[in-house]
């Protein structure tokens, strides 16, 4: 009788060993061993949390301002249109990743589409995008710290504090571990504890984890402001010496640059798309990607519409930017107290994603990528520190939240969320039209081309509008100096 090792390939021990070897080797990270971090450890629920953290954050704080420029009805239509396009783009990322396992980030897509120049172009745009977003996050944190402390110290100090916190937490090695930070409470954030005994313990009840979730805290924060602006006498910026009636508009009559800047702000709110490449690469089961995507985009879109409509309806043109300051000084303190954990987690995630991208590019193909060697740690910390430093400089030198969000959304958000995904579909499906051009194929070709053209239009027009808005703001208000000590809350 032959031994089990000599049996057919499906039932043999050698076959099982081969499967284990294959599973321990990743197309991006190489061989994954017990000697180093496991980069393939994120479940679909953790994936949904990470997706939402790249979406819900800074963008939601500017949606009421965008509605003021567009009007309620055009604002909702534009928001839903951008949600639909970015959801399709997110879906294409999952499909493309399953077909091309070696793709880790958008620069890999650039090389497939345009060769080496495409890799350089897309890679540079990706890094700039997330560094600018991280800078916006640090600026948002400084606004929150100013609000809760009644401007206890110079704003430049608060920006530096935000940078230090972002660096410390972003230097956690894997997204699998960072996803647990979505269950870390306010206490854990304030004490800089990476492994909270309450929220992360196996015995913690689901309700405790839910209420300590920074996503929930940020959701609760915005809902506090949303309710407060409805029950208060008037928004904090409104005149105090007259009867207050909201001046909200169903259809606004804004100039072109104001409208296109508002649309760029909405793009920014949904522009977590480029991070989905990295998140999908660290999923334990990439086949469950769409499940996480549906949860993410459904929650995000509904949340954005509710917040944008309600806050703008009650505040009208006197809505603040960020929107958390619309309900008066007391509510502002409370709301920013709840929001800070969510803003911090979002910012550290942005820093981590860029740092991880540079880190993988530097050490790909080397044993140092997945082994806890001295080279591994020096390279990793150097990457996260460099990204944090550049983001800090941006946050300190362009301390205007609304204009910065609009500019980043137009200049870097659209080329990260629109054009590449249209090209990805054409790359995988164009050849099918040479043999059999179905009606569906023709429609998808038209749709992909539309997404590409729309992306270029929004990038050029939105950048023009945002720059013009910044120039007009400086002419009107005199601008805000770099590394300012002035209260930005």
Tell me what you see in this structure:
By secondary structure, this protein is mainly alpha-helical. It has a single domain (38-477), classed as Amino acid/polyamine transporter I. Helix content is 67%, strand content 1%. The chain contains 19 helices and 2 strands. A two-stranded antiparallel sheet has the order 1-2. A hairpin with a 3-residue loop joins strand 1 (25-26) and strand 2 (30-31). Helix 3 runs antiparallel to helix 12. The radius of gyration is 23 Å and the shape is globular.
Using the 3D structure, state the CATH architecture.
Up-down Bundle
Largest beta sheet: what is the strand line-up?
Answer: 1-2
Structural class based on helices, strands and sheet pairing: mainly alpha
Fraction of residues in helix: 55-70%
Radius of gyration, in angstroms, nearest whole number: 23 Å
Low-pLDDT segments, ≥5 res: 1-23, 184-213
- Bin the strand percentage: under 5%
How many distinct domains? 1
Quaternary state of this entry equals single chain
Main location: membrane
Keywords: Membrane, Transmembrane, Transmembrane helix
Region (Disordered): 1-21
Pfam family, one: Aa_trans
């Amino acid at each position: 009788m032959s031994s089990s090792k000599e049996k057919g390939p499906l039932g043999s021990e050698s076959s099982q060993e081969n499967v284990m070897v294959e599973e321990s080797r990743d197309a991006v990270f190489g061989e994954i061993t017990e000697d180093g971090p496991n980069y393939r450890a994120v479940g679909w629920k953790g994936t949904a949390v990470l997706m939402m953290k790249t979406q819900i954050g800074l963008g939601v704080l500017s949606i009421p301002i965008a509605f003021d420029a567009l009007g309620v009805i055009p604002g909702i239509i534009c928001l839903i249109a951008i949600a639909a396009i970015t959801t399709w783009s997110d879906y294409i990322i999952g499909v493309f990743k399953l077909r091309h396992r070696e793709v880790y980030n958008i620069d890999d897509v650039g090389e497939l589409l345009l060769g080496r120049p495409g890799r350089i172009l897309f890679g540079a745009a990706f890094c700039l995008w997330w560094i600018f977003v991280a800078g916006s996050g640090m600026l948002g944190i400084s606004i929150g710290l100013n609000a809760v402390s009644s401007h206890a110290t110079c704003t430049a100090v608060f920006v530096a504090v935000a940078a230090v916190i972002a660096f410390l937490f972003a230097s956690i090695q894997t997204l699998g571990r960072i996803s647990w930070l979505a269950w870390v409470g306010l206490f854990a954030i304030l004490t800089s504890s990476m492994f909270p005994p309450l929220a992360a313990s196996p015995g913690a009840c689901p309700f405790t984890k839910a209420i300590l979730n920074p996503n929930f805290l940020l959701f609760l924060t915005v809902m506090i402001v949303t309710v407060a602006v409805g029950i208060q006498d008037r928004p904090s910026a409104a005149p105090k010496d007259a009867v207050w009636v909201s001046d909200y508009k169903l259809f606004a009559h804004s100039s072109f640059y104001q409208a296109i800047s508002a649309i760029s702000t909405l793009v920014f709110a949904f522009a977590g798309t480029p991070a989905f490449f990295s998140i999908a690469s660290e999923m334990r089961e990439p086949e469950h990607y769409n499940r996480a995507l549906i949860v993410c985009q459904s929650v995000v879109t509904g949340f954005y519409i509710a917040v944008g409509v309600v806050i703008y309806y009650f505040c009208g043109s006197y809505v603040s930017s960020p929107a958390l300051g619309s309900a008066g000084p007391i509510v502002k303190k409370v709301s920013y107290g709840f929001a800070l954990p969510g803003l911090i987690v979002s910012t550290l995630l942005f820093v981590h994603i860029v740092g991880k991208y540079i880190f993988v590019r530097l050490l790909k193909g080397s044993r140092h990528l997945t082994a806890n060697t001295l080279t591994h740690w020096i390279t990793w910390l150097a990457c996260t520190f460099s990204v944090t430093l550049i983001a800090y400089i941006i946050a300190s030198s362009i301390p205007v939240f609304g204009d910065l969000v609009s500019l980043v959304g137009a200049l870097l958000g659209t080329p990260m969320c629109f054009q590449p995904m249209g090209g990805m579909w054409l790359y995988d499906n164009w050849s099918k039209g040479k043999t059999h051009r179905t009606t569906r194929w023709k429609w998808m070709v038209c749709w992909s081309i539309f997404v590409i053209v729309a992306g270029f239009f929004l990038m050029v027009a939105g950048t023009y509008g945002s720059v013009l808005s910044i120039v007009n703001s400086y002419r009107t208000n005199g601008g805000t100096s770099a590394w300012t000590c002035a209260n930005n809350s």
